[in-house]
Amino acid sequence: MDKDYLVTKSNYFIMNSSYDLSLEEQKIILTLASMVQPADEEFKPYRFKINEFMALIGVSTKTKYTEIPKITKELMKKVFEIEEGKTLIQTAWLSGVKYEKGTGMVEMIFSPYLKPYMLKLNSMFTQYKLANILSMKSKYSPRIYEFLKCNEFKKQGYIEIEVEELRKLLRADNIYPLYADFKRYVILQTQKELKKISDISFEFEEIKTSRKITSIKFYISSSKNNKASDEIAASLENINPKLQQNMDDINLVKEIIHEPITDVEALKILISAKGDINIVKEKYSYSAAVPKIENMVGWIIDAIKNDYKSPKGKVNKFNEYEQREYDFKELEKKLLGWK
Fold it and tell me: Which residues form the Initiator Rep protein WH1 domain (predicted)?
């Protein structure tokens, strides 16, 4: 368990699940989510020390130590819904929690209904460092952060959402019925927190219908104090020269793809191509003939796995790059923040 571990969720789950969790409950769930390895076939029982968890989220008083079992008990009771087509899923976050008295250890496991949204994700997912949400003070900030992070690279440069839809996602419709209060205690508070402690920030524009504010345009940008890439590069330098060379190839993948992608996304593409940069360049070149691609990383991985062919029978040769040997497992662990 570490603040640099990555939380991974499907974009559909982020944009289509509505739930009401306290700030402490969200931090428990997201800390647990950061321990999930995306390649896992099933959820595992994840164990950690309660005092380490308390230190991670900034809680130090002894009274809070006894509060954790109460928080998880309440968390087990909270059922939320996910709608997908004609299917309605009603589930709790956790299927079980086990405390071992005298050891200070707790074991938790996610509900199996969450598997499609957290495991074996090949495309249309969002990843971020756990550290981005740990210092947040408003319970709405982690949810809005995920919503914006999921839409960070929209081609039009913004994401627009109806006010009532946002209220519903945040379960704030009955708490702040007046828009002025919703803006002050939810939007502006989150804006302040994200700018101060996370890797993204935002400006927003209020859209009116007649005289009523009916939707909000969020303009999302990467924060200037985001040092994620520097941290990844620094950690790779401490492993061995071969992995540093691999980092150069990850940067090469990012140069080939003329869209902003993360180091982890570049690694996934590299792995799907079995380290062959020529294949990456070849399949990416085919994307120019596709009218609209919502998720370029997912499309390229799919193109590689399914061996997409050049449109209209064109054959392109790509022999500029020498294929190298990779220690993918070690490299992936470092990029994903696993120890």
Answer: 7-149
- Secondary structure class of 291 (helix, strand, coil): coil
CB 88 within 8 A of CB 81: yes
CA distances from 178 to 13, 106, 184, 190, 310 (A): 28, 41, 10, 17, 55
Please give the span between the terminal C-alpha atoms of the chain, in angstroms, as a whole number: 9
Prediction pTM value = 0.64
Q: Do domains 1-120 and 135-225 have the same CATH topology?
A: yes
- pLDDT tens, residue by residue, 34-43: 888 767 788 8
Binned at pLDDT 50, 70 and 90, residue 103 comes out as confident
The β-bridge relationship of strands 46-49 and 105-110 is antiparallel
Model confidence over 176-226: pLDDT tens digits?
A: 888 999 999 999 999 999 988 888 889 999 999 888 999 999 998 887 554
> Is the CATH number of domain 135-225 1.10.10.10?
yes
Residue position matching structure tokens 């309440």:
74
Instruction: Output the CATH code of domain 1-120.
Output: 1.10.10.10
Contacts of 144 (CB under 8 A, 6+ apart): 170, 186, 187, 190, 194
| Residue 147 and residue 14 in contact, taking contact as beta carbons nearer than 8 Å | yes
Helix 296-305 crosses helix 263-272 at what angle (to 10 degrees)? Answer: 10
